[in-house]
UniProtKB/TrEMBL annotation:
The keyword Nucleus applies. It holds the Pfam family Med26. GO terms for cellular component: nucleus. SUPFAM superfamilies: Conserved domain common to transcription factors TFIIS, elongin A, CRSP70. Its main location: nucleus. Keywords: Nucleus. The lineage of its organism: Eukaryota, Viridiplantae, Streptophyta, Embryophyta, Tracheophyta. Residues 79-162 form the TFIIS N-terminal domain. It is found in: Nucleus. It comes from Phaseolus vulgaris (Kidney bean). GO terms for biological process: brassinosteroid mediated signaling pathway; regulation of DNA-templated transcription elongation. This is TFIIS N-terminal domain-containing protein.
Amino acid sequence: MKDVFKIGKKRKKNERSPAEIALLVANVMAGLEVTAQEDADLNRQGKPAINKLKQLPLLTQVLSKKQLQLEFLDHGILTLLKNWLEPLPDGSLPNINIRMEILRILNEFPIDLEQCDRREQLKKSGLGRVIMFLSKSDEETRLNRKLAKELVDKWSRPIFNNSILFEDIRKKKKCRR
């Protein structure tokens, strides 16, 4: 699966069809979801949950590709990232490297909260709650708390903005329909 996204020889930009790209993204997502579930199961058994750590290079590789980021958003990457970031069944946080990489990626990710569907997608994913938890957790590193706080600030303004301007109120009503 790792080789699917590697760029060997220079290729034409439109070599893969949108359907092929969607299928590749769906396959990667499915594998990453299984990884998160396996770690949760291992944690319940009292065993080390290291599958996500093994797959972290793949996650960072595919999510750093700008041309694939919107496709990943369309396939529900925010929910998957929530599953990777949330505490394990025993209450422990995922590996520090996992948290650090995902927070870094999210700070660079093109989530346009001006779009109603992206705002709703972020709300439904539950990722914001996990990020908020990390921003306040004493177990989190100072740098990760700072990154999480930046995300909370960046995301909460468009989501909870209570503007008194008529134009803004009208836009919010359109989103609710």
